[in-house]
Specification:
The protein has about 70 residues and is an all-alpha fold. It is built from 2 helices and no strands. Helix 1 runs antiparallel to helix 2.
């Protein structure tokens, strides 16, 4: 008997979503790094807010990876 074709499609979909969430996490890490370098070179009154939003974005992307692992 041949294995169920839908099982393989679902497995491929899970792998693609997991890889996508990992890539998004890497993007969030790069954003945090770029913002910290930028705030070292440019001083502005909005720098602490910008740093806070970048770390919040990183936190949400880590949450996305964990949620992807739990749901899928």
């Amino acid at each position: 008997m041949l294995p169920d074709f839908n099982y393989y499609l679902l497995l491929i979909e899970k792998i693609i979503f997991f890889i996508g969430s990992i890539i998004y996490l890497i993007f969030a890490i790069i954003v945090v790094k770029q913002i910290t370098v930028m705030t070292q070179n440019i001083s502005d009154k909005f720098n602490p807010i910008l740093i806070a939003f970048s770390y919040l974005h990183l936190l949400f992307s880590v949450f996305l990876v964990l949620l992807t692992l739990i749901i899928l």
